[in-house]
Amino acid sequence: MSEINVTPFVDVMLVLLIIFMVTAPMMVQGVDIELPRTKTTTVKTAEDSLVLTINKERQVYINRLPIELKDLKKKLIRLMEARAKKELLFRADEQVPYGMVMEVMAEVRAAGIKQLGMITQPLEPDRDRR
Q1: Contact 115, 88 (CB under 8 A)
Q2: What's the farthest any 2 CA atoms get from each other in the chain?
Q3: Which pTM value belongs to this model?
Q4: CB under 8 Å to 30, separation ≥6 — which residues?
Q5: How many DSSP H helices and E strands does the chain contain?
């Protein structure tokens, strides 16, 4: 036989494709929250931006790592020391009270972060008529 049999190669590639299709949705970074919906524009950010999250149980996270609110300022100062661009993306579940959001934002400002981006969901067309 002078031909190369590619059937095993195709089988392996199809199995790998299925594995990647199943695992790709699980690799999304972040904490599961319900973002408020607003009419906003998209802002370009660096891929390695820090994301500060508050979930509906009022737990605070930096990227995926939980952190106590009392330690937030110190942790942000340490994280921002090594960064040239001192920006932070902020997202909070829509059920989080406004006072809690403002308390966290005050800690962010106290840490010296001047660029704070708010992450929201776009309005749905039928919800736009409020």
Answers
A1: yes
A2: 76
A3: 0.59
A4: 51, 53, 63, 64
A5: 3, 7
Q: What is the pLDDT of residue 87?
A: 84
The label of the residue with tokens 């749905």 reads 124
Q: H/E element holding 22?
A: helix 7-23
Cα torsion 106, 95, 62, 108 to 10°: value is -10
Cβ 115 vs Cβ 43: under 8 Å: no
For 80-113, write each residue's pLDDT tens digit. 888 877 788 888 888 889 889 889 988 988 888 8
DSSP 121: E
Task: Pull the structure tokens for residue 95.
Answer: 């059920």
One-letter amino acid at 103 equals: E
With a pLDDT cut of 90, the percent of the chain lying above it is 18
For residue 85, give the DSSP letter.
Answer: S
Query: Is the Cβ–Cβ distance between 88 and 53 less than 8 Å?
Result: no
